[in-house]
Amino acid sequence: MRAWIGYRRMRLLLDLQLQRDLMSQSGLSEPDYDVLSNLSEAEGRKKRLSELAAHMRWSKSRLSHHLARMEQRGLVERHECPGDARGSMVVLTDEGWEAIVEAAPGHVASVRRHMIDLLTDDELDALADLSHRIVEHLSGQLPTS
Question: Smallest Cα–Cα separation from 7: which of 130, 117, 120, 121?
C-alpha cells in the first residue's frame, strides 16, 4: 500500500511540476510536446493521424481537436494520405520543429532536476526494469484506438 500511495502522489506532483516548467519555459503544453516530439522522431517528420493517435493512446477525435489548435499556431499541418482519401497525414512544420528543438533541452533539464538526479544508478536501473515490465504487461491488454 505504501508503494502504491507513494507512486500515485509522486506521479501527480511530478506531472504537475514538469507541465509547469514546460509551459513557463516554452509555452507548450504537455500534449503539444507529446505530439511534436512524436512527429520529430517519425520518418519525414510526419505520421498518419490514426497511427499517431494509437501510439499516444488518444482517441482519433481527441487528437484531431488538439491538432486543430496546433494548426492554428502553425506547429503542424494535415494533408491527405496518398492513395487514401479518408486518411490524413500529420506533418511537423518548420515552426513546430523549431518549437520542439527549443523546448527539449529545458524539458530534459526539468526531468533530470525533478527525478533522474534524485536517484542512484541502481535505482534508475530498477525503475527502468520494472517500468518496462509493466508497460509490456499492459501493452497487450489495452486497445490500440
Answer: 130
